[in-house]
Amino acid sequence: MEMQLVNEYHRLIKNLHMTDGYIFNYFGQKLAPFDLSVQQYITLRRLSEVYPSSLTAGELKEKMTDVNSDMTRLTDRLVAKNLIVREVDPQNRRRVNLRLTEESYRFVETVAIEFKNFESIVSHLTDDEVRTMNTLLEKIRNR
């Protein structure tokens, strides 16, 4: 049974939710052959941006798009897959740094090739539509 929409605002929220799910599933399918979740891939990409340097879990969390992600569990899984390493900071023994190995950096770059044209999911939109959509989505988040 189709959910009855109360008004256009309700329709907008439903559409945003469905579109987020659509995009998330699209990327999930692209990542499946690499045995990575979307969150794991984003984590690896953030670490690849600073490679060969490292980030603390807190710094990494700040760079993530999903504010609710459980960084400990996420990084535990990536450590178990030998994709990231945890190292005690030599300057501050209480800090733990997360970093890619050379091998995992090459792996992330290989996976990134799959996403070189990730904009294809919205390439049928005009430049004006994209600008309008970006403006409206930013307005929702920055009210």
From TrEMBL:
<dbReference type="GO" id="GO:0003700">
    <property type="term" value="F:DNA-binding transcription factor activity"/>
</dbReference>
<feature type="domain" description="HTH marR-type">
    <location>
        <begin position="2"/>
        <end position="142"/>
    </location>
</feature>
<dbReference type="InterPro" id="IPR036390">
    <property type="entry name" value="WH_DNA-bd_sf"/>
</dbReference>
<protein>
    <submittedName>
        <fullName>DNA-binding transcriptional regulator, MarR family</fullName>
    </submittedName>
</protein>
<dbReference type="InterPro" id="IPR036388">
    <property type="entry name" value="WH-like_DNA-bd_sf"/>
</dbReference>
<dbReference type="GO" id="GO:0006950">
    <property type="term" value="P:response to stress"/>
</dbReference>
<keyword id="KW-0238">DNA-binding</keyword>
<dbReference type="InterPro" id="IPR039422">
    <property type="entry name" value="MarR/SlyA-like"/>
</dbReference>
<dbReference type="GO" id="GO:0003677">
    <property type="term" value="F:DNA binding"/>
</dbReference>
<dbReference type="Pfam" id="PF01047">
    <property type="entry name" value="MarR"/>
</dbReference>
<dbReference type="InterPro" id="IPR000835">
    <property type="entry name" value="HTH_MarR-typ"/>
</dbReference>
